[in-house]
Design a protein that fits this description.
Blueprint: H1 3-6, E1 27-33, E2 38-44, H2 55-73, H3 76-82, E3 87-90, H4 93-97, E4 109-113, H5 121-132, E5 136-139, H6 147-152, E6 158-161, H7 168-180, E7 184-187, H8 193-201, E8 206-208, H9 227-237, H10 243-250, H11 254-264, H12 278-285, H13 287-297, H14 311-329, H15 335-347, H16 351-354, H17 358-365, H18 369-377, H19 380-394, H20 397-406, H21 412-426
Parallel strand pairs: 2-3, 3-4, 4-5, 5-6, 6-7, 7-8
Antiparallel strand pairs: 1-2, 1-8
Helix pairs in contact: 3-21, 9-10, 9-13, 10-12, 11-12, 14-15, 14-19, 14-21, 15-18, 15-19, 18-19, 19-20
Length: 443
Amino acid sequence: MTDEAQRPAGAEGRFDAAPARPVQYPARAPIVDADGLLRGFELHLREVPVAEGDEPDAKRAADAAAAQLLAALGASDVRTALSGHPGYLNVSRPLLFSDAIARLAPDRFYLEISPQQPVDADLIARLVTLHAKRYRFVIDDMRQPDEAFAKLLPYVQAIKIDPARVAPELLQRLTAALKSAGKLLIALNIETHEAFEQAKALQFDLFQGYFFARGSKHSARRVNAPRQALLNLLRLLSSDPSVAQLEAELKLNPVLVMHLMRLANSGEMSIGRKVATLRDAINATGTNRIARWTQLLLYADGRKVRLEEDPLVQLAATRARFMELGAMRLSHANRKIVDGAFLTGVFSLVDAVFGDTMENTLDALTLATHIRAAILRREGQLGTLLHAMEALERGDWEALDAASAALAPLTSGELAQIAITAAAWASTADQSKDNAGLERFEE
């Protein structure tokens, strides 16, 4: 990990003031549209405890805590991790009333309001004030169209609903009414392909959950090159092949050759002149980078989707980079752990590509025993790191703390920062530096 990656990311604009406590970086969860393309990210913020006291002291403490939370949202890695998509923030009442809310760019975030909190005159007045400044609001996890919901409705652009928590008859009438009122509907906790199809049928516009990362025989991903060709290439790369062997395998796959030639001629990967032969491309790129590129190519959608809009590519790349950066920070990690970290992350979702069980898919990849144990059973240091990444994807801070205790001296805050750094790497396309992000894969 570079020194730059270890330092807290810099802040932009009005986020200049350094927080009194270490920055609490948010966790990132995808929000996709009906075509399965990324359209935003839920940013889970970890609330900072505020000591109670007299009203002036409590207000100052609340403002300080709000500034601490919002400072993380101005960090350069967080901005990059959004890759141009909006961030959805669940804001508490103290955060909403804090003066620090003005630090948020209205065009970059949606502010989520819980209908379970008291919806009184003060809250409505605050929404009116912020609405006039072009802030956008979302009702979060609406379960019952009650009086509180009715009061909030005029000031929001979108409503989040967990379809499993609302009676089917009510849900159908509710979604139809809200769509006719011009509201954006976001389905929560969509974890299976069946739930996704059902929510689409109910006219939901956006979907939050990890259904796209679940294996299913009916939803195996199309890939840009023949599946078996990619697997054969990965097996060859794992055996330390000669340039001649690698050249012969690649020549069987014209699409792979095209990708490799583009990669070899990009910026600093170039050898000082335009690469014209496959052998030169292999030498310029190196087998390690070819292997990573091939691994991530497994996840690329066959529809020529941009990497920034493909949730499965983003998730796999973020996990892989997080595992790699995290393993480098482990105090007792040996070379085997560090070398296997990227593979563990990138193949932890591979069942979503092939539509088979994880066990069968990993058998086909012939991965090392400790990598298989980490993926299948979350065993060892790599398994614990992967568990930490999954906790961050869910915004499960208790699970993250438990994983952090097993990964000491890595703290929960450091793990969250590494995850945002990894997400920024995954969200960066068409870059040439060695530590830059992914290149676009286009036919």
